[in-house]
UniProtKB/TrEMBL annotation:
SUPFAM superfamilies: alpha-D-mannose-specific plant lectins (SSF51110), P-loop containing nucleoside triphosphate hydrolases (SSF52540). The chain crosses the membrane at residues 652-674. This is ATP-dependent DNA helicase. It is an enzyme of class 5 (isomerase). Residues 533-628 form the Apple domain. The keyword DNA damage applies. Residues 209-334 form the Bulb-type lectin domain.
């Protein structure tokens, strides 16, 4: 049967399909057993009577290697093998009394087991104890009885395997499936879970190992894998929140406090009875518990040889499942991250980092960090919480991601344009830190990016000499305006404002109730007070104006208008389109060639203005907002976003302070004129007195006035170094006089 099978499999009409077959032992021992057969029947059923015998070459052993320490026993075995031992009825042989057990009766087998395996229950996990003992019997029936008696001493669940069955999916069933094909039906083998098998002793310990296979799982919470360079460690762990819930994770080796970078079962913790982790016979990673349950870690569907699958922890922190020694990668933890990004990973549109629930619960939290169309973002559940920038042509304008962080996320992709990224990183302490050269160095290896449970994406550096992590960059910052679209559509975020960080753009009003804005609920944003391009006879298109908002950060999709070479052309393009909400025109100089390029960007009504920030220091630009004629009358930014009594009181206080400042300014000006006249008349040439104008008064006036008003008001009294940058509006044709400016501030 075996010969025919190999011929059919290999397609070769040669003995065993052309393969070399080794038949060990005496020919009578390898022949099929004829139950209760005579010598003639057994010989006739042996290979010497087979058509294959002419192709068999017999190799004789030159020395008997069996039982060399007991010559009598060795000679006895040799006589049996050669058929020289005298027989009794039914061709049975007699065992010498010196080799027979001295016990008789129904408990004789129990006595034999207790003699050969004393205190068996206390040594069930002792490898040396098991390897040094064996009970030899000539019949399989006796082997079954002995095994049954011996296995009764072990706790656990008994499972019977028949030769035509498949082995249960358990890492501790370390029996090679191929060996079961040698059993003649209905042969069977009974095994117990959680024990060391007497016949097959395959457990071994290896300190500091970095890999496991089907035959040597991690057994026990104290066993771990350590990468070859002692950088990372894998094993079981618990948290301060619960000592019962058990996880499998990867952390930095011997770093205190423990820094966990990957968790296998974050959403399904095990109980403390689960302590075996390894490669199952189907090639998947699984965890086994002493009370029976099996928990899968991977769900691969492949047809690789199960005993050829190896799991290895690398110095990069990556856990790889190989098919064979350094062969095909079946699975790796770098493709399945949790909350931490390590150097060597590569962020793509299919990868996400998900925060922990809190510092003591590794379950999936509320925040995810991902990449989409070249833009990195944090989502709080299903809503965008932070974005590194805008996709499309705006991606190079507002980019909150430092170049060094982008390099690590892209795994040092050479296509990354460094000019698009911030060269400096500002941490919460307001300290600016430069990234060193971005190369694969020890600096690079000692970094990590964390999506923390508070909603911040953080970049850390490790000082190995002191075992201390330092935070080098984090977004969003404590600045409330760094959260994406904090104030909603058509509303500007400014944390410098005391009354409310959100304000509607000129010509807009709150889209929700004032009560929502009072309690800090700005998500609905603002809406226009009156529509642009109204359909009536009195409307004239060119009556509409644009309000100039400077140092602005803007989000939303934008349309380029490449034909505009001048600002006026860009303005006309927006004015001639009733859907145009705003435009921006910039002139960019190429630092290498020195040539200028113009950019005209237009926002239409389908793409609302979002994520607006005022006084944005990182390359903020001028945004020209379209307003109807009725909305362009005010000469300063109206505070129409919040109507609470508290804000009204603040306005009155502000106006009072401004009036007092104005009076002081007039008095100061009069005094200076008086002194100048005195000097002209020769009454004295002594030095003029300092200007009687406080910085606080100046700041309050500047907050409400446009740039030309400031120039007219300050004349030569205020130094240019003390002026603010709140130039919000397109300057009027001619600067108003000082009295008109004060009237606008006090009563506008």
């Amino acid at each position: 049967m075996v010969d025919n099978t190999f011929r059919n499999m290999l397609g070769m009409d040669l003995p065993f399909g052309g393969k070399v077959m080794i038949l060990g032992g005496d020919f009578r021992q390898v022949s099929p057993v004829v139950i209760n057969g005579t010598k003639a029947q057994i010989i006739n059923a042996s290979i010497v009577e087979s058509y294959l015998w002419s192709n068999v070459k017999v190799l004789h052993l030159s020395e008997n290697m069996r039982a060399q320490d007991d010559q009598r026993f060795s000679d006895f075995l040799l006589r049996i093998g050669n058929g020289e031992e005298p027989t009794i009825e039914n061709d049975m042989i007699r065992i010498p009394d010196s080799m027979s057990m001295p016990w008789e009766g129904e408990h004789s087998i129990d006595e034999l087991i207790r003699t050969i395996f004393p205190n068996l229950s206390s040594h069930m996990y002792d490898v040396d104890y098991m390897e040094g003992r064996a009970i030899i019997t000539p019949l399989n029936d006796d082997v079954d009885k002995l095994n049954e008696k011996a296995l009764d001493a072990f706790p656990g669940e008994e499972v019977t395997y028949y030769s035509f069955d498949s082995v249960a999916d358990d890492a501790r069933n370390l029996l090679d499936i191929s060996s079961m094909s040698n059993m003649h039906s209905p042969s069977n083998l009974s095994l117990y879970f959680s024990i060391t098998i007497i016949i097959l002793v395959l457990f071994y310990h290896c300190d500091g190992r970095d890999s496991i296979s089907v035959r040597n799982p991690l057994s026990g919470i104290d066993q771990t894998l350590v990468s070859a360079g002692n950088r990372f460690e894998l094993g079981f762990f618990t948290t301060e929140k619960s000592n019962i819930n058990r996880y499998i994770g990867i952390w930095y080796y011997e770093l205190i406090p423990r820094t966990i970078v990957w968790v296998a079962n974050r959403d399904a913790p095990f109980l403390d009875s689960c302590s075996v982790f390894g490669v199952a016979v189907d090639g998947n990673l699984k965890v086994w518990c002493s009370n029976g349950p099996v928990f899968p870690i991977t769900s691969l569907d492949h047809k690789s040889a199960p005993f050829n699958t190896i799991l290895q922890l690398l110095d990069s922190g990556n856990l790889k499942l190989f098919e064979g020694q350094k062969g095909h990668v079946l699975w790796q933890s770098f493709d399945n991250p949790t909350d931490t990004f390590l150097p060597g990973m590569k962020m793509n549109d299919n990868m996400e980092l998900t925060s922990w629930i809190d510092q003591n619960d590794p379950g999936p939290g509320n925040y995810t960090f991902k990449r989409d169309q070249g833009v990195y973002s944090i989502n709080k559940r299903s809503s965008v919480y932070w974005k590194s920038g805008e996709s499309g042509i705006m991606s190079s304008i507002f980019n909150e991601l430092p170049y060094g962080v982008e390099q690590i996320l892209s795994d040092f992709d050479t296509s990354t344009d460094q000019s698009s990224y911030q060269p400096l990183v500002t941490v919460k302490s307001n300290k600016s830190i430069s990234f060193p050269n971005y190369t694969r160095s020890s600096y690079y290896n000692n970094t990590r990016i964390l999506m923390n449970s508070s909603g911040e994406i953080q970049y850390y550096l490790l000082d190995r000499s002191r075992s201390i992590w330092s935070l080098s960059w984090s977004e969003p910052t404590q600045d409330s305006c760094s959260v994406y679209d904090a104030c909603g559509k058509f509303a500007v975020c400014d944390v410098k404002k005391d009354d409310s960080m959100c304000r509607c753009l000129p010509g807009f009003k709150s889209a929700s109730s004032l009560k929502d804005w009072t309690v800090g609920q700005y998500s609905d944003g603002c809406e226009r007070e009156s529509i642009i391009c109204p359909n009536n006879a009195t409307y004239k298109l060119h009556d509409e104006r644009f309000v100039n908002l400077s140092l602005m950060k803007v989000g939303g999709q934008v349309q380029p208008f490449d034909r505009a070479l001048e600002a006026e052309e860009c303005k006309k393009e927006c004015l001639n389109n009733c859907k145009c909400e705003a435009y921006s025109f910039t002139v960019v100089t190429d630092r290498q060639t020195g040539t200028n390029a113009t950019n005209c960007w237009i926002w239409i009504s389908e793409s609302e203005l979002v994520n607006l920030q005022q006084e944005y220091s990182n390359d903020g630009f001028h945004l020209f907002l379209r307003v109807p004629p009725i909305a362009s009358a005010p000469t300063f930014w109206t505070e129409n976003s919040v109507g609470s009594k508290k804000n009204s009181k603040r306005r009155y206080v502000t106006m009072a302070v401004v009036l007092v400042a104005g009076v002081l300014l007039v008095l100061g000006s009069s005094y200076i004129l008086y002194r100048r006249r005195g000097n002209a008349n020769g009454t004295g040439n002594q030095e003029e007195n300092p200007v009687l104008f406080s910085y606080e008064s100046e700041r309050q006036v500047n907050d409400f006035m446009d740039d030309n008003d400031k120039k007219a008001l300050t004349s030569n009294l205020l130094s240019s170094s003390s002026r603010t940058t709140s130039d919000y509006f397109e300057p009027p044709a001619s600067p108003p006089d000082t009295a008109a400016a004060f009237a606008a501030v006090a009563f506008g």
